[in-house]
Amino acid sequence: MAADRRIEEITARIRERSAATREPYLDRIRQKAGETPKRSALNCGNLAHGFAACGPVDKERLTGDRTLNLGIITSYNDMLSAHQPFETYPEIIRQTAREAGATAQVAGGVPAMCDGVTQGQVGMELSLFSRDVIAMSAAVGLSHDMYDAAVYLGVCDKIVPGLVIAALSFGHLPAIFVPAGPMTTGLPNDEKARIRQLYAEGKVGRDALLEAESKSYHGPGTCTFYGTANSNQMLMEIMGLHTPGSSFVNPNTPLRDALTREATRRALSITALGNEYTPAGLVVDERAVVNGVVGLHATGGSTNHTLHLVAMAAAAGIRLTWADISELSEVTPLLARVYPNGLADVNHFQAAGGMGFLIRELLSRGLLHDDVRTAWGTGLGAYTVEARLGADGQVLRVPAPETSGDPKVLTTADQPFSSNGGLRVLNGNVGKAVIKVSAVKPEKRVVEAPARVFHDQDALQRAFKAGELTGDFVAVVRFQGPKSNGMPELHKLTPSLGVLQDRGQKVALVTDGRMSGASGKVPAAIHVTPEALDGGPIGKIRDGDLIRLDGETGTLEVLVDPAEFARRPNAEADLSANETGLGRELFAVFRRAVGTADTGASVF
């Protein structure tokens, strides 16, 4: 089915805007593709270094000119549940490659930090910048120029966007992303949130809180709520960088391993030495980017992707803007309710029909481009399936179910949960910001109240514990942007503000920092740009100023006399404490070089 007229118009606008950067990017891919494979041009000493550690069979194959060699970029570590399953993947991939007459090598590892561990901690100030470090780390691994294709092992918040940026920087190489899958369902997410809120109120102790958290995050795999990690997996599938149906299969299962073997074989089949050459830079075009944004809206995905998608697109020479994202939100119906937008987790989403059902529903309304090139082949229709394990141990695909297994979790385009998407861009005299409305009840989406201004999240927490946050108010937490301190997530504030909202107070958050991919029930205008340290109007707000946040109309305004507001000097903050400790001194160059939130908060 042809894409909806509005989808076509937005895509055409992006294509036209991007022409000056996309065409030179494609020229670089064509030039580099003509040089592959590079191993045959390496000096003997170079090549010997490249396969010195290999076994006899792999070494013999790499000595020749025509054996395919697959590069593995891995984010494995065994501290983080989402990445621990990757420990066994390289050997699975190597063995599968050998069976196909090819070779595979771990080209490099990339750091993988967890926002769940660093939430509210100093380490969170490195989190956003880790995305660009990951891109550079992957580039270092691939710079040996020994590979005909690459597979990328990554799951969580900054890891997948960083890997995508790297894959697009090496856009002449075919790329397939291989997920680990979500952990099995533990303590229900709403119960976890209830215990967190009770702890914030002082009604339960740390033992009860730790017990609840441990029952929620209890085994290998991705956290089961629909935050940035699972939004990443949705994006990789709907943008054609996964094999069909592979996003939400649990780790350490026969099907998961079969999907990894299949991804390896597919990566080997789409190199420049075969008849299906599919470089990553051609998979990710304007249509794929639009498909990703539509998928984000249709599932109520992570606010972090208003940064990451812009940066990922830019790596392919595509200029995506917040205005594009906002306009696509008005076109896209909300079809999924997964916590924090509902009570279900991603395992329930998968059981209800998963990505195959979602993609088919969106295609049926022309809300996705079907005529795309994917790592699997031509056309997104190939992704309207469910992956199962065949009797022979191989992956078997069947059509996605015709009806949802749970209409409260996954619905049809004819009966959406909302007529528009879960993310919205706010505009006004405070600047531009992002809000996730899918998790906020309609009656809570408009707040007009006096400002309470803080220069860090700890100051707000102290005010809450002291009982000072009375009446209706809008919490303004500034000097949290990328230039200030790396733009940390402020998800730690959610339980406290949630308590006050439940008490009947009208509350909202306005910040130039980030919230989490799990942004919850309190309306939050985040990623405010320009940020306070960059002279943004958020730096002019004073305690008591009346602020109106309207998540329905998409406005964020300080209701003071415009002339007076313009005359006000911007506040200043002592940020020296954010400059050292836990490696922050190493990232000073990032804080100086980083771009604005609406351009992806990137150092590139």
Automatic annotation (TrEMBL):
Concerning Pfam families, the annotation shows: ILV_EDD_C, ILVD_EDD_N
Give any GO molecular function from the UniProt entry.
metal ion binding
A cellular component term, taken from the record's GO annotations: cytosol
Q: Which cofactors is this protein said to need?
A: [4Fe-4S] cluster
Q: What superkingdom heads the lineage?
A: Bacteria
> Might you give the EC number(s) for this enzyme?
4.2.1.12
SUPFAM superfamilies for this protein? IlvD/EDD N-terminal domain-like, LeuD/IlvD-like
Gene Ontology BP annotations: D-gluconate metabolic process; Entner-Doudoroff pathway through 6-phosphogluconate
Tell me the cofactor note: Binds 1 [4Fe-4S] cluster.
Looking up Gene3D superfamilies in the UniProt record yields:
IlvD/EDD C-terminal domain-like
The record's catalysed reaction(s) read:
6-phospho-D-gluconate = 2-dehydro-3-deoxy-6-phospho-D-gluconate + H2O
Q: Which InterPro entries match?
A: 6-phosphgluc_deHydtase (IPR004786), Dihydro-acid_dehy_C (IPR042096), DiOHA_6PGluconate_deHydtase_CS (IPR020558), ILV_EDD_C (IPR056740), ILV_EDD_N (IPR000581), IlvD/EDD_N (IPR037237)
Q: At which positions is [4Fe-4S] cluster bound?
A: C156, C223
Give residue ranges for domain Dihydroxy-acid/6-phosphogluconate dehydratase N-terminal. Answer: 70-381
The pathway this protein participates in, as annotated, is:
Carbohydrate metabolism; Entner-Doudoroff pathway
Give the Dihydroxy-acid/6-phosphogluconate dehydratase C-terminal domain ranges. 408-601
Keyword entries, A-Z: 4Fe-4S, Carbohydrate metabolism, Gluconate utilization, Iron, Iron-sulfur, Lyase, Metal-binding
State the protein's purpose. Answer: Catalyzes the dehydration of 6-phospho-D-gluconate to 2-dehydro-3-deoxy-6-phospho-D-gluconate.
Similarity comment: Belongs to the IlvD/Edd family.
What is this protein's record name? Phosphogluconate dehydratase
